[in-house]
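go over both lines:
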Amino acid sequence: MKNETPTDLPFIKRHQVLRGAEARDFAAAVVTAYKTMSVRAIARKTGRSYGAIHRLLREHDVTMRPRGGDTT
């Protein structure tokens, strides 16, 4: 995706489970980041899988962008 901007996304250690306020804060950061970053870029930056980020966004009723990026 073009013009991806860095955001304050935490890197989550492998197999670390987030609960409570930590999980809510992480979800809010991911939802905000999706406005300017791709799912793959968020996954890379946070250490989570593509599927985990995609699932989190869907669970928070985020409208997913179409595949393929910018077509102009």
Summary: The helical segments are 20-33, 39-46, 50-59.
